[in-house]
Fold this protein.
Amino acid sequence: MLDESGAPPASPVLPNPLREGLAEERIPEPAAMVIFGASGDLAHRKLLPALYSLTRDRLLPSRFAIIGFARRPVSDDQFRDEMRAACNEHARRRPLDPELWAAFARNIFYQQGEYEDPGSFLSLKQRLVEIERALGLPGNRVFYLATPPSSFASVIRSLGQAELAPKPPPLGSPKPAGGPPPFARVIIEKPFGTDLDTARALNRDVHETLDERQIYRIDHYLGKETVQNLLVFRFANGIFEPLWNNRFVDHIQITGAESLGVEGRGGYFDHAGILRDMVQNHLLQVLSLVAMEPPVTFEADAVRDEKLKVLKALRHVPSSDFDKQVVRAQYTAGSNAGQTVRGYREERDVSPTSTTETFVALKLYIDSWRWAGVPVYLRSGKRLPKRVTEVSVHFKEAPHLLFGRRGENIRPNVLAIRIQPDEGIALNIGSKLPGPAMEIAPVSMEFRYGTSFGVEPPEAYERLLLDCLLGDNTLFTRADEVEASWAWVTRILRRWGEETPEGQVSLATYPAGTWGPPAAERLITADGRAWRLP
Ligand code: BG6
């Protein structure tokens, strides 16, 4: 891996992505992190708690500053108090350690400003320089865009105009005598565009100011421990890879289910829908890790090159089969954990005539040598019976069944990778029931994170913030990946918006607390298969 200057980074590169526990190898250089949108939910619930937990685990450098930037006029001390309350509520490492908090809070600052105002960025620059001088920081900076997406382009333009994020020297330039210049990196939250055209336009805007090596497009699913474990599971174990193809795999299922509804985010969600909110980013990223070829190394671009190939190989759903391969639906009133809950159209900030989908089920194909003919069934929805994210790989039946009637209970092997909750991996196999008869029953061989390692996995944001500070963008989405997944998703969105001679593609409904509409069942049972009950 090269850093922005084209030179190898100071800290050693380890060949294995499971690098937890090697804390001493992963301490980043002293730096300042500016959080745009510091008054928002993300900063409170995720970012500051993640930074505190990293400090608690001694994974941040001792010289590190956090500068919150937002429109509200708030003093440094008020901001620190708010962040203390936020960390108290949300940090993984709780209760807060008073001494550690005092030291952490001393390096938290607040800067009021407007995202479109060049003057605000000049003031920010001045403040940053003062803070860096006072704390002896070398000028390394990370800018986190936790703002509404409509401000992404203007914040980046303003950073450029204020010369806050200079591009690194081109790759291959001679090493500067005094060592590499300080880094400037930018983390961009989701959603990155709302379709292919807007994603392309945003990439163009961003690239006017920044080099791709400075850009960290965040998809928090890639920071989840079990998602990373997909790579280790596949490529550190010799026994699965030979089976990981269309000779042995019958089909793959991916479920991203949530029991919650839109939870006060109706205004955003009603313009997004589940396809944009969950599938374009999180689930297609998970699919790309499940289906990618082994990369030649674990360097960021080698991994992302392979993921990109999967996204580019997604076959567009043909119009003739659209209704057989794509089901969209919206929840109506129903129940959740024994409580009656309202329908989507009755949610706050949702149009009472909304046709936004809160559930989608898809059947798709990856047109590659490895996966030709293997269907992938994917579903995601709000207000489903439970919160679960799972990938299951369903193997073909044994070629010849020897056991006659006694083998009736033999089921094809299924490898289930549980991403959340109860993170773990289970392999279903057929086993002989104890006793004199040759009776066979399915059993499960299981590994669970909680029981095997006895530790709570770190929050996704902790891992991702740390990786960005270390200059490792393996777990961040590259421009071409984002565009490839939007290219596939946008065709579906267009079709939903079209008036065809048969009328608009229908929107089914399902009562809250169920696994989607009957059409989602038909999508898979029509092929003689069934959704796995996660
Ligand atoms: C977010 C979506 O990106 O991911 C939310 O905007 C969704 O709608 C969330 O609830 C799911 O994340 P997790 O980590 O809870 O599975």
Residues 479-497 form the longest helix (19 residues).
